[in-house]
Amino acid sequence: MNWRNANGYPLTPAHAAPAGAKNIVLVHGGFVDGSGWQGVYEILKKDGYNVSIVQNPTTSLADDVAVTRRAIAQQDGPVVLVGHSYGGVVVSEAGTDEKVKAVVYIAAFAPDKGESVSSLIANPPAGAPVPPILPPVDGFLFLDKAKFAEAFAADVDADTASFMADSQVPWGVAALTGAVTAPAWKSKPSYYLVAADDHMIPPPAQRMMAARAGATTVETAGSHAVYVSRPEAVAALIEQAATAK
Fold first, then answer.
1. What pLDDT was estimated at residue 159?
2. How far, in Å, CA of 48 to CA of 50, rounded?
3. Signal sequence span per UniProt (predicted)?
4. H or E element, residue 101
5. What integer pLDDT is reported at residue 125 of this predicted model?
6. What is the CATH number of domain 21-115+128-243?
7. By CB atoms within 10 Å of each CB, which of 108, 175, 189, 205 scores lowest?
8. Contact 24, 44 (CB under 8 A)
9. Among the residues of 14-172, which ranges form H helices?
10. Strand 140-141, strand 171-172: pairing
C-alpha cells in the first residue's frame, strides 16, 4: 500500500502510524524553558507514558536540534515528538530521526523546506497582534515583561504568568533565522493543536501550516501558552498520536 498524508507526501509503511509509541519527547519554544510542560507531563506519566522534556538553549536551530536528537537517542523505542511555538521548527528538523513515529505541533511553527521563524513572520496578516518583542541585546530577544501575560499567557493564572515573564529565557536571533532542511511532516504522521486565542502566532497562520502539513488538527480556546493553561487538551492530542493505528 502507498501511504500518503493529506498533502500527498509519501509515507513508508513503517511511518504510517506511531504503533503504540510509549515514549514522548516534549520541546519548548522561545522565551520559556521546559518547566511549562509540567501539567502535560503529569497527565502523560499518569497514563503510563515515558516522558522526556528537552531543555533546548534556544541559541540556534542547529544547537536546539542537536539537544533534541540526543533526547530521542536516549529513548528505548518509538517516539512521539512534540513542539510548542518555536519548538515546532526544532521538531520539524529533528523529527526525521528513524525513532520518531509522529510529530505533534502545539500552537507551533510548522515550516516547510527552507523556511524559518523569520521567514514565516515576515508578512503578518493585516490586523494580526504584534508580539511585544524588545529590540535585540547582544543577539538575544526578550518579550516586554509588562505585556508578556496579555501576549503570551492571557489565560494562565496571574501568578504563573508573572513568573513566566520574570523567568524568560533569552531567545537567540540566530535561532529565528535557522531554516529547516527536510520537514518531518513530509514523511511522518503529524498532528496540530490550534490555540484559537493566540496573540503570538495568529490562529489563521496556525491553521494554514496545519493544513499544509496534512496534520490531524484540533482547535481549542487558549492563549499561546495553551500547553500551560489547557494541559488536558494538549495531552489528549499527544496520546491520540501515540495510539493511532
1. 97
2. 7
3. none
4. strand 100-106
5. 73
6. 3.40.50.1820
7. 205
8. yes
9. 38-46, 61-73, 87-94, 117-120, 145-152, 158-166
10. antiparallel
What letter represents residue 26's amino acid? Answer: L
The answer to whether the beta carbons of residues 192 and 219 sit under 8 Å apart is no
Q: Tens-digit pLDDT profile for the chain (245 aa)?
A: 333 444 444 443 333 333 488 999 999 999 999 999 999 999 999 999 999 999 999 999 999 999 999 999 999 999 999 999 999 999 999 999 999 999 999 999 999 999 999 999 988 777 788 899 999 999 999 999 999 999 999 999 999 999 999 999 999 999 999 999 999 999 999 999 999 999 999 999 999 999 999 999 999 999 999 999 999 999 999 999 999 98
- Residue type, position 172, single letter: G
Alpha carbon distance 24, 102 (integer Å): 10
Q: Which residue has the cell 502545539?
A: 106
Neighbours of 28 (CB within 10 A): 27
* 47 within 8 A of 19, measured Cβ to Cβ: no
Q: Which three cell numbers stand for residue 70?
A: 540526543
All three cell numbers of 230, joined, read 489547557
Which amino acid would we find at residue 217?
Answer: T
d(CA 67, CA 127): 36
100, 103, 108, 112: CA torsion to nearest 10: 90
